[in-house]
Amino acid sequence: MRRIILTLASFAALVAVASPAAQAHPANDRYCLQGRMWGYPGNCQFASYQQCLATASGTSASCGINPRYAFSQQYAD
Fold first, then answer.
1. Bridge-partner residues for 33, per DSSP?
2. How confident is the model at residue 1 (pLDDT cuts 50, 70, 90)?
3. Average pLDDT of span 61-75
4. Which of 30, 51, 68, 74 has the greatest number of CB atoms lying within 10 Å of its CB?
């Protein structure tokens, strides 16, 4: 029984490390919608500044660069 639990725990850890969510670089979330309602860093789901501005239009929110994107290391592929 102990061996089965250890095997399952090891497999779960391997899956968690290999999942796309564990990657260090964001895919297409370069800009964040920021404002009192969103907090910091805000709603970071925008690939372009224009997309973010269109969503912020008519509200008191603004757009800024995603800090995870700005300060992430750029790796050569």
1. 43, 63
2. confident
3. 83
4. 30
